[in-house]
């Protein structure tokens, strides 16, 4: 990308913030309250767990660290114990205060190629509340016991002071595990992660291994790349899933909570997916469950990658459901997790997680949830739906913008692409994925049906940061 394109991209990113009416700078009263809270958090209920050598695993450069873990074998020799520390942002917030009100206005942290719009002021989210290495921090500390097969047999959560000893990234962790350099407790991440993946298979859950299109920095500019997730990322995600499932069970047992739910896909959507599998020459025998087929796919094969992209349609429709009457909602299960599940592991970046932690802390202590938590529950699903929608809009708009900036000035050029989606109503229109540059764009204007999963020569017909539009046509 040229310097001129950099300038137009920067201007377009600024215009995007204005167009989407996103939160701006924190108000002075919010910053003042945050600074005071950072100096004097409420640590009256926190036990001392600083003897446990926690570690964090996050993308390089991350400073808003929500989770830290310590893994060990159970002393009775019957399995494992997962210590999972979640940043205790509630120790810094006064219910009904300026910080609390601002968090409800923002709902989630929003990410841009050049910056982020944080949920909480950085003095907290990247400072006093973040589980940074070498710092004593308040946390909601989960202790989850697993048997030798990786099944959870006991879980509780208490407030504690913790201290991380190391800040690791996924690539470094993967290298240590692959070369045998990792010692316990890090080496146990692979063992426990694999057991939890086996448990996921047994209950019919699914994790889609779809290569992610991500914005990357290239010197002082930005580009796009497809990034396949590392096994260590999947194992790390299994620890978070385990905690979210344990939290949902605690809520279900007490009759008060907020769940992350996803309805089972209707028969029509599954039938459409079967037609896509047939078109893509993906073997799907009638007696084989959808989840088993997905686990057999190789995302490096173009037809498998296209089918994985089609599979994401069955995971749409996730939402949040609150309950406070002792009865579980219907549906209560998250179809992809294949169990009860809630979000509770990212309170520095997502509003609902703070409330989930409070509900589980009360459940473990055998107490009623705080009044401020119960009062907020009815409105939380709608707040989270709006915040999640806004975050998705920002993410997609940023990718569209970088795609358009990368291809600006190249209208008329030919590219090699793969057809990853075809519209049912208009088989001559759909979506193509370019290998280089890593662009996913709409294709239309042809007369023949698009060959789903096949290589196709395409011509760029439109590209411009101002409209955030990229359009192709069959060559």
From TrEMBL:
Name recorded for this polypeptide:
RNB domain-containing ribonuclease
Give the record's GO CC terms.
Answer: P-body
Q: Which domain of life is it from?
A: Bacteria
Q: Which organism is it from?
A: Streptomyces anulatus
SUPFAM superfamilies in alphabetical order: Nucleic acid-binding proteins (SSF50249)
- Domain named RNB is located at 46-366
**GO molecular function, a single term:** 3'-5'-RNA exonuclease activity
Quote the InterPro entries the UniProt record gives: NA-bd_OB-fold, RNase_II/R, RNase_II_C_S1, RNR_Ribonuclease
What biological processes does GO assign it? mRNA catabolic process
